Amino acid sequence: MIAFALSGGGNRGPLQVGALAALLEHGIRPDFVVGTSAGAINAVYLAIYGPNADMRNLAALWHQATRRLVYPGNPLTMAWRVLIGADSLFPNYGMRQLIERNLPPGVRTFGDLKMPCYVTAVDLQTSRLYLFGDDPSAPLVEAVLASASVPGIHPPVEYQGLQLVDGGVVATVPASVAMDRGATTIYVINVGYGGEKRKPVHGFLNVLKRTLDTFIAQSIIEDLDRAAADPSIVLHHIHITAFKDLPFNDFEHIDQMIAAGRKAAEEYLANPQPYARERLLPERGKPIPGLTEYIR
């Protein structure tokens, strides 16, 4: 069974659009998809239309994402929201609008999708991963909005008594979900950290940011270890580093990112190196299992 696992990536989500187009054009069809944050947007789109989805329409969706829509306001409004004790620097009505207007008529829940799809979020009340997709009646808008709500940037989504935020807080690359759902061949499209060694950092803020990034990155390191140790799993890790220094609120390079994502995927497919055949990370002792405990 083949699964696509799409990482979080904020405004670098268009990189995945190009990579998805390359995979589909090479005849690689998923049986189900898993997405986190920006990857949730792309995963749900693919699940709505199925393996023959037209990536040009997904590209058009990303062209609708503007700084004004996703991050409305200015420094004064942000300061005001801090003073009044708001849950975030920005409201999420623009993101909600973007998701709602791109759902086709009659497609509102996970049961309306053409293929199984799982979307990750995190419940702030229990500090556990919450997985959308098992319940066919779960609303797509709430799932995608929750998965893409970065804590402090956008407000948590209240859903069934839970307080849900970006799934990337716990599983920025949801490969573990794909493995737990029975995938034996997984194509990870990762536009975030990929396990590589990075240069030292200096300065208080840089060290703090790297520390937070390291915490968030543990899930992909664990998942790669898990796949490498299990001969029944073939995991293709398509790691796309283009535009890694793009400001979080820059939406001016959609077409260039799509092209870069396609190029990265084409280069990988020309010489695939699945983790099931070769361990690419340093040996670190007994592999740590992936995330298997969810809120039901």
Could you walk me through the main structural features you see in this protein, from its secondary elements to its overall organization?
With about 300 residues, the protein is α/β, with parallel strands linked by helices. It is built from eleven helices and nine strands. It has helices spanning about 15-25, 40-50, 55-65, 65-70, 75-85, 95-100, 140-145, 170, 175-180, 205-230, 255-270, and strands at about 1-5, 30-35, 115-125, 130, 155-160, 160-165, 185-190, 235-240, 295. α1 (about 15-25) runs antiparallel to α3 and α6 (about 95-100) packs across α7. Mean pLDDT is about 85; it is low at about 275-295.
* Estimated structural class: alpha/beta
Task: Count the beta strands.
Answer: 9
The proportion of residues in beta strands is: 5-15%
Tally of helical segments: 11
Mean pLDDT equals 87
Query: Regions with pLDDT < 50 over 5+ consecutive residues?
Result: 277-294
Mind describing the biggest β-sheet? 9 strands, mixed
